[in-house]
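Researcher: We're teaching a course module on how sequence relates to structure. For the next exercise, students receive a sequence and then see the predicted structure as tokens, so they can try to spot secondary structure elements on their own. Here is the exercise chain.
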Amino acid sequence: MTNSSKGRVSRRTALKGLGAAAIAAPAFVTRAVADDKTLVVYNFDGTLGKYVKEAWIDPFAADNNVRVEILTMQGSSPPMAKIKAQIDAGRPDADVIPMQLTDYVFATRNNMLMPIGRDEIPEYANLYPEFITDHGPGLILWSYGIAYNTKRISTPPKRWKDLWDPAYKGKVALNEALFEQAVQMVNLVTKGKPTPVDDQTIAELTKLRPNLVSLWSTGAQAEQLLRTEEAWITPLWNGRVYTLQEQSVPVEFVTPEEGFFVRYDPYCIPRGAQNPALAKKWINFICGTARQSGLAEKLYYASPNRHVTYSPDVARKVVISKPEDLKLAVKEDYAAIVDDLGAWRRRWDAWKIG
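Model: And here is the predicted structure for the students to work with:
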């Protein structure tokens, strides 16, 4: 496997509700004194967050007689600017933070993370080494392709370009949660490669506007758009698609011919964390075969654990069940994305109000 460094706008007045949500927690936790019986972790929203709580957090708390407090992220990324300010002040509010690969670049550049030695996590011996960073394991391998309503769309889409089909007028949703993947997707259509993001990118994005019903800012919102059939087709992560399918929502996932995106989430300990020993113990716990197998079987996210095996149906749904599956994945330059993200954001924001 290959290692890689990783305002909502709507034409409707608002999105109607959210999907299943993880149990909420305070947005900020003040921890004056280290407590070796309390672990604070950031967690995802929606179905993934609910699973992580039930299968990774609660069993660990029970087995080790500890309390685990959850800070729920809105969307897929932690609030990195806030976390940086806390670390710089010596008071990070969490012991473990899963982060996007672009967040990880930002964090390493700003000395925000505690190094984790290869010998400090016993389960590292069972992981593909390409998914072990200097600051934690890369878990939850997710693929980003096209989700579509099989009841409303009889001919399955094959390409990103199909999102521009006039048949989908007012029925396409687009990802603002990770807008950099949205603009890179547009480039795959027009340039055959994810960068550069330029005037041509925005011009092609403007051509998509008649088809757009919403820009979603969390995966839970994307799920709700598909449940209500407000959107028939949207770029989305494979695990959320197949979870909806398990809930009898008529959806399917497609890996587009122009290429699909594969990312993972490094689980890291912030510099100055109150309880790094317990954090490492939990990280080791969630890297184990039992936790990783459950994630694949329940939510269809692939695992870096080499001992996880997949049934044929699960292998299809996790998309990347073996190293060679990554050959079709689009290679993203996360350092370059971070460097250019401000310029991309300005173009994106100008397009939204244009």
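Model: If you want an answer key for the exercise: Residues 334-353 form the longest helix (20 residues). The beta strands are 38-43, 67-72, 97-98, 132-133, 136-149, 172-175, 212-216, 233-237, 251-254, 261-268.
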